[in-house]
User: Fold this.
Amino acid sequence: MPRLKAGELSRISFELNGRGVSGHAEPRMLLVDFLRHVVGATGTHVGCEHGVCGACTLRLDGAAIRSCLTFAVQANGRRVETVEGLAAQDGTLSRLQAAFRRHHALQCGFCTPGILMSLEDFLARHARPSEQEIREMLSGHLCRCTGYSGIVRAVLDVVAENAGQDV
Amino acid sequence: MKPAPFDFVLSDSLEEALAVLTEAGEDARILAGGQTLTPMLNMRLVEPAVLIDISGLHALDYIRCENGYIEVGAATTQVAVETWPDLPSQAPLLAQALPHVGHFQTRNRGTVCGSLAFADPSAELPLCLALLEGEVMLQSSARRRVVKAADFQLGMLSTARQGDEMIIAARFPVAEAGAGYAFTEMALRHGDFALAAVAVMASAGRLRVAVGGVADRPLARNYPADLGGDALDDALNELAWDLAAADDHHATARYRRELVRRLGRQTVEEALTCRA
Assistant:
């Protein structure tokens, strides 16, 4: 049974947006800090550091999680997806990102990466959520700029687009 | 806002995890989903010498129906229970309560047993365990014991778990045939801590009401199955006062008593309509 000693570095490797990354971290290093400070992937933001604000949300093996409540060592060998992986190689925004832009669903943008990553998981599980369900899901994120209305509109727009495509 | 240093044990067997726990005792903490423990670590409210990560212990990641109980292993996430296809039929109360536990992003990692271990007075899962008269299975290297919900949660953030023990599973009784179950809570935002939460079971033989978020732990009472009208209001009023609510920065005691009366009535009526 592996036991990592306090203060000692261990090697951590995982798949980040389809590419392998690795680095060294103490056991106490949070996944979000590993991404930002070791890997240099600063798209994921860190706000409250106790799981309330939602800014650091990313997908671990597909599930939206708080990367401030997960240690880097726990991501070893797993699949991590962050906001950097949403747009296409040529910079074309994902449909969700484009809808956020159309509906002014962000102002300062601090909360946006977390909200987008939550929505990627949420919409994969709920193809046609109601506005109430979207608002309940957004209760896991703090946005101090928009009052959420633009965000809700953007999500409803994407949901309607998806529904149109299904027909 | 960063944790103090700790040794990190990636458990690959229960026996080894328990051996580390026996050796380290109160200096160790079990890490399952980490949705409550990690904030406490980040804020340095706890500074354990050793973290024992059991999230990868597949032997503890299960949901099974056995002997009239739904048994949930200590590594099983809240979302795994929430999306278990049999949940609405086997445990309608949990099906109603789980969406209120934190947010879906925290339920993706948070565990059922972790919530019971933390024993927050306003948490939904301890309230459900109390209403349903469930059990907690505790294991150390030396012994295994099963503790009734009422004997497990002793007060605010306090349980009967000994330093060398870990929760290995929780057992929720399967829904009684014909009984109605309902859950309601009042929180300032969806996913916030409940100012008051009420769970009710209405069976042919009795009405059982449990309240969380008001006293230092969830408390349950039994009433006659046919309790209604003014007698129900009187009983809920008695219960509201017996919970000895206190003012805090979220709500006043008076407001909480009113929540117990109103949510209580609403939840009882909902459970009665679900009763076959």
In short: Chain A has five helices and six strands. The mean pLDDT of chain A is 96.
